[in-house]
Amino acid sequence: MLVLALSAALLAIQPKPMGSPAMDVLSAPDTISTCLRAHQGLADRRMECVGQFAEACMTYREGGQTTVGMMQCSMEEAEAWDAQLNQAYQVLRNRYQGQAAHDAIQEAQQAWISFRDSDCAYLASVYEGGSIARIIHAGCMLDKTGHRALELIEQTDLPD
Length: 160
Hints:
Oligomer: single chain
Low-confidence stretches: 1-23
Distance between the termini: 34 Å
Helix content: over 70%
Number of helices: 7
Shape: flat
CATH topology: Substrate Binding Domain Of Dnak, Chain:A, Domain 2
Mean pLDDT: 85
Radius of gyration: 17 Å
Structural class: mainly alpha
CATH class: Mainly Alpha
Strand content: under 5%
CATH architecture: Up-down Bundle
Number of domains: 1
């Protein structure tokens, strides 16, 4: 909802010719940052941020409702969440330099990446041969990466 409201507000400021896609106004990283700021200190509400950009992208971007469009929208957001995840991961690694947690977070992250990739491949394989398989895979990567990013972000919010 927040993304839709922000998109509408920005479109009002920067009018576009009829028929042009509205999704070039906000990027996935901008959408995520805006949502996380809006839910600052509300960890349970931050989960609402995962999928907001992709949903708006699929709805408002020209071609967003095609197989390729849905995959692109999901992967754009997944990449933005991956950047958030990597930033939080580096904060945690630096925080725990010289402690057991330093190596433990690295091991946990490697195991999580393996799990995410395997689980998403499994979920997509159920639809093997159909175009929906690629959409399922992209959506899974988005969901799992977004949720893991939020887990790590929450850990960075904890006192040292």
